[in-house]
Structure formats: structure tokens, C-alpha cells
Predict the structure of (S)-ureidoglycine-glyoxylate aminotransferase.
Amino acid sequence: MTETITKPAKLTVPPRTIMTPGPVEVDPRVLRALSLPILGQFDPSFTNIMNENMTMLRQVFQTQNHWAYPIDGTSRAGIEALIAALIEPGDKMLVPIYGRFGDLFVEIGERYGAEIHTLDSEWGTVFDQEAIIAEIKRIHPKIVTLVHGETSTGRMQPLDKIGSYCREEDVLLVVDCVATFCGADIRPDEWCIDALIGGAQKCLSIPSGITPITYNERVEHIILKRKKVERGIATAEERKRSTGLPIRSNYFDLGQLQDYWSERRLNHHTEATSMNYALHQGLELVLEEGLDNRFARHKLNEKALMAGILAMGLELFGDPSCKMPTVTCVRVPEGINADQVRRVLLEHFRIEIAGSFGALQGKIWRIGTMGYGCRQDNVLAVLAGLEASLIRCGAVVRRGEGLQAAIDVYDAAD
Amino acid sequence: MTETITKPAKLTVPPRTIMTPGPVEVDPRVLRALSLPILGQFDPSFTNIMNENMTMLRQVFQTQNHWAYPIDGTSRAGIEALIAALIEPGDKMLVPIYGRFGDLFVEIGERYGAEIHTLDSEWGTVFDQEAIIAEIKRIHPKIVTLVHGETSTGRMQPLDKIGSYCREEDVLLVVDCVATFCGADIRPDEWCIDALIGGAQKCLSIPSGITPITYNERVEHIILKRKKVERGIATAEERKRSTGLPIRSNYFDLGQLQDYWSERRLNHHTEATSMNYALHQGLELVLEEGLDNRFARHKLNEKALMAGILAMGLELFGDPSCKMPTVTCVRVPEGINADQVRRVLLEHFRIEIAGSFGALQGKIWRIGTMGYGCRQDNVLAVLAGLEASLIRCGAVVRRGEGLQAAIDVYDAAD
């Protein structure tokens, strides 16, 4: 072989303060867990880690569901796995949309042949739950999908009433809580939510690439009806057994994933070793802090950030009554180039904040206060950096006021 | 909230020598890369890492293809992504099967509506390329899928002749080289292979959970015809544009993934940060060693392992003319319980070897010599441990001969 000798690139990772809606900074203890040696997928020490991850996921999801495990893929892999399990071609799916990630449910549902019905709410608002319930009554879909925290607009949809209505009408409720999982309260059992998709790289603060899901017996019932054991490892009887319409994806076949995550340990994929370590350590840290404390920490840092932004003379975007505690959307002042400010902030301060999508592009900045990054030092750093970057880009702000207002919030909380 | 106070489980990872066909040990430099801090997905420092990963993947795949990037999922996610891109319902797919992972192509192809034609070869053998070519002539499928290295049986399919015939007949050739990527020579461009799926947790020796793929313009052409930009971020014109039958999966939509991995950087999922660091560092190490040296290292350790196994009085499984250099299958001696031996080896020596699937379960052990784990100390450790465990379980072996024979091989190579 004649091989071209090329000097391989060296991996370079500069320091950053990440204040976006994800991926966010990861606790050094999680980074350390990632660097532990590999274990075989059927090594009892590894299957023990898998079992512990299931137990801890149940606690963090605040559910009694048996099934709580991760999908080896990013958040939308978790969403797709649940849609693939629940939708057969022609099934009706109601998708209330109040931002970009509502659209994602449409996108995925269409691929699996759903008959999609949408309900729209202006970006920056959420739905009155009664409006959704009325639409469920009118359409009678098989499933309703909702985004709990819509990072594109920074809004959080109340959903304590919709599930019980769904239960009565035999409709399934699937909730994307990617951006609120471990950052804001959500009660699957109390609120009658049938399936949830949590996030990794947001308030749980582990790297992107693994996605916790949970679902109840109503969802499992559908999965079992569609179950198909893999040809290469099925018993003779299993090969013959007739089944319902199989799930259209093998990678996302929750029937096969259940077998792998159960005591049967029937081989499917090779579970992502290091990412399961990160998940384990991340969940440990959440349980050590306690969910109540963690939610309160997110509220406090949000409060300080908002106070600082307003005191600086900037305006917040969106209906304040439904603001997400983990994302704060700031209006870009008239005449200011949103991306230029973000560039100055990144180049000089090494701080990253986010823009937004679609009609909001260039109109708002989105600042995340999530998980490990949701800390006083980070909130003060982003306020200081944003003020200086705005001045640098020609904006008029109330100099020095932002930090004082934020510190006042922290002092009052002590 | 009334929270149950439960002491979270502590993450425990015991030391292991992993001599299975994957997941295998990871170089400490890769483990260290995994523990680097997070970067935002659109941070120029991170998109630079993505670009470098593409460049290094092209080199390691030994291809001029533009498209070479990872799928955020385990190996079968890479396989599914290519099948999803290429198969529309009713398309003919020819699947020659000589082990479990041929069956996996059937499994995935069926899910995407392919009309599947299989060709079978006894487990432990491979196909004469002419037999496959004759079947292509008979069936004229849209795609032919082949496994390069079949870990379930330890065989490697020659495939230097099939691709050029496919090219003439306008058939696409897709090859699963999960178990040989970075461990045995494969020439996509020379051998006219249109798409390949490489492995992470095998000879590249990074953790499971990310999967390198590459494909040429013939595959890209089909992907572009089916392209659909996501509703939530499409321009008005893109929303209107009519397209071919969209790819059935959003997560595996290679058209959208191309946009994300191109300069357009159109948001799809949030790329797996830490796993991309691992990929970068893993590829650096492969290029530093050089592919030729790496393949030679795999051959040498295989030779020593085989010599040791035979000298001990054990027998190898399968046709030796098509043995994979990275997996060695050993017949379980009559009257010996295969799993008991594996248990003794794991408990006393902390060494892991694998069993097999289907009809071979309990009949053979599979010993991997892959990537970072493919080393003299590991080969000698597994021979020593296997001999002792066999004796412990009542087998008669030629005591002490295995290690001497293996060391002879290493001495002769110096």
C-alpha cells in the first residue's frame, strides 16, 4: 500500500463558558467518569451499571414506570424511538406547536406515516390547556405530542390537566421534556403523561449523545403487540410467531431494546459504554443535590439573570407568565447586529450565548441557565460580557447596573 | 414535593482485559480526550474538530469520497442510516448471509420495505465472489449488502471483484466493515464499494456509540433526490419544493446530516461532543501508527494467538482460508461447558472472551485481537488464563505449550 503520510490534526479544546440552551458545561466529575476504562456489554459489572441507570432514571423522572432507560443517540433519537413505536401509517397525531421543536414532532410523525393535525400558537406564547383538550375532543387522535420547554422561544407549556383528559379518551400523551428534565418540575404519573423524552446536554449536564426516555404500560402494550425478535438471534418459535405491524426502525425498536434492558439481555446494539458512565455519574449528582434543590437553583439563577438583563436596559422576549426557568430570551436592541455581539462575546470573553431560529433569527438572543452551568459566577460573567460586547457594538446600555441588580438577587436569597 | 431520599449508586468500574470482538479496551489517550470540557455545537473550535474528523475519516477509510462522517449511534445505526437512504419500498436488495450480521441487513432492509433476496453460505465459510456475481445477474437488485468481517463466525469475505461488476450493472454495493475497519485492509475506491459502515468499539478502539460511514456520489445522488429540509428551519422556498419519497427516518436522514456536516451547518441534532473528541483522538492514533503497520500488528498477534491455541491442543473453528485477522474462533472441547470456562476466566483473571450466537452458541469461543487490545501482553494473558480455566473446568490440555508457541511467534518476528 502506498500511504500518504499526513500529519494528523491535534485535538484542541479551548476553555469556554457556555450559556446557551445546550450543550452546556459538564461537571468535572462527569468528565472524569467518561475517562474510566471500557467494560464488556455483558460483563456483570456493566449490566449492573445499566440496572442502576434504570433505577436512578425512574427517580429523576419522578415515575413508577418500569421502563426508564437511555436511547443511544441524541435527543431527537429518543423522540423518534417513541413515535416509531406508537405510530402506524394512518394513525392520527395531534401536534400543538408553539416553537421549532413542535415542528420536529410533525417532521418525525410524517416520516412514520401519521395523519398529522397541528394547532398553532404564536411563538412567544403557549396554549391554554383547554384549547388543546377541545382539539383532542374534535380530532380524537391516537397520540398527542407536546414540548414541555420550547428552547426556541423560551416558553414552558403547562400540562398538568391534558393527560387526565387523554386517559379518559384513550389517547396517548407524549412529552418532550428535553430542555426541562432535571431543571423544572414535571410529574408523569400525577399528570398522566404516557411517555417522556429527557435531555442529556441540558439540565442533566452530561454530553450530547444519549437520551433518557420513560413510558408506562399503555405504551408498552402497543410495543409488545408490534414485537419482532431479530432474525439472527430469534428462537425457532419466535421466528414463526406472527406479530402486528413491526416497528419501522430496527435501531429504534423499543420491543428489542426492552429485551436488551431486561434480565433476558438479548443482544441488540452494543450499549454505549462511556456515555452510560456519564449518565450514571450525572444522575448521581442530580440525586445528591435533590430535585427540589435543583429546581430552586435554576429559579434563583434565572431570577438574577433576568434582573441583570432588565437593569441593563434590555427587554425580555415572550409572555412572562409561561417563561422557561432554564432559558431567557433577550430582544436584540434596534440597529444592533445579533451575531456580531455573539462574536465579540465569544472572542474576547470565551462566553457562548445562542441566537434563535426561523422568524426569531437575529431578533433575540437565548441565554441558558442549565445544570452545571447554572451558577452565580456564570450568570455574572455573561452579564458582564454581554454589557461590554453591546457597548463595543454601539449599543446604549445602563452601564454597571446589570451586575448590581443580579448581585442584589443573590444577596436577598442568602 | 415529597422526595424519597435514596442514596444514589456509586459508579464502579473494575479492571478488565477485554479479548472479545468488541467493545475492546480504549487507549488511555482516547479516555483522556473523552474527559475534555464541552464545546458548543456551532463553536468554530468544535466545527473545526468536525471538519478534521471528516478529513481523517477519508484517510482511514482509504477513499476520495467527499462524504465521510460519523452517525451518532452504535454500528447498526450506521447500517440503518444507509439502508434508510437507499431503500424505497419495493426496491430489491440482495443479502448474501454467512453469519449473524448478514441477518441484520435482512432485518433492517425488511423494516424499510425492501424486497429481500438472500443467498446463504454455511456458517464458518464465505462466498465465492463469482456466486454472488451470478446472483446479482439473476436478481438485478438495487443494492447488494455484504459483511466484510463476520464476527459471529470469524470469517472475512473477499470483495475485490464484486464491486466492479455492480458498477457495470448499476447496482449499489454497501459493505459493513464494522469489525475490520482499522484492523484489515479494505479499498472502497479500488474495489468499487459505494458505501461503508465502520466500527468504533473494535479495531478503531474508541467507545461504542458513534459510527463512521462513507459513501460516494452514486449514493449522494439518491440522497439528494429524497432530500427534505426540516419544517422548523426550512426557507419558504425549501418548504414548497417538491421532492422524491423522503427518507423514512428523520434521525437517519443523510440529506439533513450532509447539510449539518457541510459549511451550511444547518441544525439537525446536537452532535455528540465527547464522542467526537474520542473519534478525533482515535483517528489520530491510527494515522500516527500508519494503516500498514496497524494491519501488520493485527496479523502478528493473530498468528501468535492461533499458534498458542493450537499448541495447547485446542482446535480452531471455520475455514482457515477466509479467517478474519481480528477474531479467532476456538472450538469448545467435547464435554466442557463454554460459559463456565468464560466465568472462571472473568472471575479469576478478569479476562473477558466471547461466546457466539444461534447454532454456534456453546460450541465456540470467540477471541478478539482488536485495536488497542491487540497486544503481546494481552495475547499471552488470554492464553495463560484460558489454559488454567480449562484445566479448572476439567479439560485436558498440553500444559505450558500454548505460551511457548506464542512467544516463539513474537521472537521470530523481532
